[in-house]
Structures are given as structure tokens and as C-alpha cells.
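Posting for a labmate who doesn't have an account.
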Amino acid sequence: MGMGPKPVQVRVEGSCIFKKYVEENLSKFISPKITAAEARKLAGPTVQERVDEVYPLIREAAEKGKRSIVLHDWWAHEGYSKTVEYKLACKILEGDGYKVSFFYEERQFVDMYTVVEW
């Protein structure tokens, strides 16, 4: 039965300064330990955090008299794939009274984005 990762043996040759640096910093490069903050950063934003990023855009557009916004990047790629996270984000916005739709058009290039209307 495995008892976790096997220790790594490293033989360091060269100057004393280099050897000391490697010995002091080796654990940063091979340690399996990760803090919760590092894990959150690696995992990326939650669905709610993505939706929360949209509200200031809606406010800004509404203050300019607009009735909709167009969202690209995550909203385009996840919308095209119809991922569970995308569907949940749309439900959150729709629960707040917004109409959410996905636009896709193939021409010389593909245009795809999410439209949020109010």
C-alpha cells in the first residue's frame, strides 16, 4: 500500500552558494503541500463570483441608457459548451429578472457571446 509520495533525493554539485540555495528552496518546487488560498487561486472564480463580476457591467450600461450587455471570454466558451457552470450562472441572472441568451454565428470567423438583457 502506498504511503504517499516517496522522498526525492537530489545531489547538488557546484558552488556552495548554489548548493545552499537549492537546499533552502527545494521544498518550494517539489512539496505536494498547497494552501487553501493557493488552491482557490488555481481553481479560478466560482460561478457566483463570475456572476458578481457582471453586475457592475450591467449598472454601467444601464446608466448609459442601454438595455443589454455582451459578455465574451468565459461566457462565450462556456456558453458554447453549455457547461453546468454556465447554465447555473444563467439561472442566477434569470432569477434576478434578466434575460440571458447565447449568440453564435459562423462567417469568415465565428462570433459567439452571451447577451444579458433587462
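Reply:
Got it, the C-alpha cells are right above this. The mean pLDDT is 87.
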